[in-house]
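A further point concerns the way the authors explain their paired sequence and structure data. Each protein is reduced to its one-letter sequence and a matching series of backbone shape codes. An entry of this sort, consisting of the sequence and the corresponding backbone structure tokens, reads as follows:
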Amino acid sequence: MIKPLLEVKDLCININSLRGKYNLTDNLSFNVYPGETFGIVGESGCGKSVTALSIMRLLSYPLYIGSGEILLDSNNILKISEKEMRRVRGSSISMIFQEPMTSLDPIFTVQDQLMEILQIHRKNTHDEMIIKITDMLKLVGIPRIKDVLTSYPHQLSGGMLQRVMIAMAMMLDPRLLIADEPTTALDVTIQAQILALMNDLKEHYDTSVIIITHDLGVVAETCKRIAVLYAGQIVEQGDTAEVFHNPAHPYTQGLLKSMKTLASKEKLYSIKGTVPSMEDIGSGCRFFARCDFAQDGCEQEQVLRKHSDSHICRCHKAEKI
């Protein structure tokens, strides 16, 4: 049996606010296997990005991990020192952040920012670092490499910046790459190029990938398995093909119905209501107020149930729905 590269077990991320302490995520559990692309999908505010930051151990006050484990090769990285974690970042786990324009430092050139990674983690000479950087930029399809290296972030297009971010994330050949909304704010053509590039790099380096997105089209095209998040909980998880063709949770069904197709002439479906704020989340079903199938008894707390051998769902009416 293949052993997971990453295991997230019962992860609870909390926030301290003026109104008290609240859970942003509730007992999240999922595995990522070697060479696999795993998707985490949901609306804005459901907990996707904070989950990614917790894996990188980049949460800052007032956010913190309340409980749970994050195991990399069976080692709990929540227990290691910050010095040890700095060695893990980049070399074992790397991340492509949202909005490359704001993720790169505006006062340093692209070369300066790429070289900093090698200066911290490797003991290469200057010439060796330039060769490594040039090779990586070639691999991500960047033309006019000398011009790009001497450019500042504001001088590059969104698509070019995203390629630089991918090159930066892959510089140390990490075993796990986390891509947080990697195609946001890019036009459709560039989105396709970026997704194809990430897939090529995954195959080239045999890297595991977590893609975090609200775009179901991205998930369908790239991910083997998927976890659907709603209000800090996983409401459905399984093989992407099975979840898309046989969605068991009303929220997943709503997300799929809200996707517009060229052949569709019907009015675009919209899930009623909004995601509850952390102050409004109670102990019962978090989707109850927005569910088209809600009946008496549905307001009680729901647990993840087995829907098939590779498919779990947080709804006691999944079979009937």
